[in-house]
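User: I'm curious whether this sequence folds into something compact or stays loose and floppy. Could you predict its structure so I can see for myself?
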Amino acid sequence: MKKPSEFKEGEQDSSYGIGDLLGLGSQSVRKNYYPALQERIDELEQERNRYKWLFENALHGIFQANLRGGFLACNPAMARICGYESPEALTEKVIRLREQLFCSSSEFDAIRQELLNEGSLSARETRFQRADRTPVHVAVTLLRRPDLGPEVVEAFVADITERVLARQKLEQLNATLERRVEERTEALQNANVGLRYQIEEREKVERELVIAMEAAKEANRSKDKYLAAASHDLLQPLNAARLMISALQDSTLPEQETRMVHQVHRALEGAEDLLADLLDISKLDQQAMKPDLVYTDVAALARSLGEEFEAVAANAGLGFRVRTIPATVRTDQRMLTRILRNLLSNAFRYTRKGGVVMALRSRGDRLRIEVWDTGVGIEEDKLRDIFTEFHQLLPQGTGGRQGVGLGLAIVERMVRVLGYDIDVSSRPGRGSRFVLTLPLEPAQARPDLARADSLQNFADGFDGVPVLVIDNEPAVLESMQLLLERWGCEVLTAASKAEAVEALEQTGQIPAIILADYHLNNERTGYDAVHGVRRHLGKDIPAAIITADRSDDTRKILRAQYLPILNKPVKPNRLRALMTSLLTSASA
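Assistant: Here's the prediction. I'll summarize afterward.
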């Protein structure tokens, strides 16, 4: 039998099979068949075919070559990379890798030396020669196979021509960009010369603006000081006039005189509200009004406001109800009172028939204070405009007492300072609803607060209650005395602490309460006078400060002295409520 190597190319020996491989004749094979061995041989054949398919159909070039000669074997992809029709053509034509495959002999020598030293190299970029002698950029990975020969290598080759061309194009773009950058830099340097001049001019303008802004701020501060001083000076005579008018209103007068007194009362009330609004809006815009948070019984506050507006409702022929629930919040009591008072005033101002309701409702840990009215209502597209300054729902001359449009602007700013929410809904011709939402204090965190229900009722008069009034304005003293005497009080007046002590010594009276102005003559203050009288009598007489000074500093000082405050101009219903509170606390 011939050996396989003895057959010529293309010649096969059909009689040479597995039996010959095992050293057995065909007869022996048929007699001694090994199924397991045949199965393994089939598996090896399948694996061989798979690798052969991968070799022939790979996208990258694969070859085996001798560095001292040419190709030993290659796949079709390698032939395509090098521009040959078939692997056989490439193998036949390229018999010297150094001269026929590599574009640079020196680079081939370097690669060969690295392979001999390291045994392999990975993704080395180089250039091969195609069949037409044009270069092709490739990335080649080489592995030396000393088991097959001293300089036999196997290689994987990727055509990276597109990547190299793209990189070259990018380098060209970078070069172009750098050139443009240099040109732009030069242009910018030239422009900077002009810009420096413009910057210097702008800095000059900015300095002038800073000076102008400082002048404007100083003018604004001066305006605030002037407004505060002028308001204080204006509020004093207004306060005296208001008290006088209130005393006249409690008197029996002819119908015409009664109507005239009522008109004067309304005019004074409008002037007072305007001054108070101007002061508050100025402080809010200057962010000079800081909240002073204290625990507040909102139900008691609502009932107090209800008593205050009962007369307003009666005069207007409107219904008025206050619905409360137990509720305590931590808030600035003065600002919350002002918010609710403005909402109620606004409701009464624009309500001609029907009535107004103020209701407290709890929603989880939030308290809703709602003010309903059956007034003229507001168009939907104007709901947000009502919170702007000098905005009025009705034009002048349509009836009802008109303001200047600052009430709701003050409400919006105070709500913002306190961090609350306010919402408004309305139907034209049917009425409006304002809802103020603020956080409730947990029941266990609420301190014991005096209940308004415990206050004594002095609605019919104070029946001889002795009251000491201290004020450095004679007109205010006279009007206060007249009003309080109309309420049944025994009034003792003084312009200073010394006069008060002297009057008490002469009369031997002990006042039930003290009402003192804050700013007295010779830079003395009302709380100095109150403490002087208390020391003289040896008793802690209930007292309150009545002042036109609305500054936060004054309020903090008086709060530290535990002295309640009533701002001028004094409204009779608020004065009555204050006196009732003082007398109740004295009897508790």
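Summary: Residues 254 and 260 are 10 Å apart (CA to CA). The first helix runs from residue 18 to 21.
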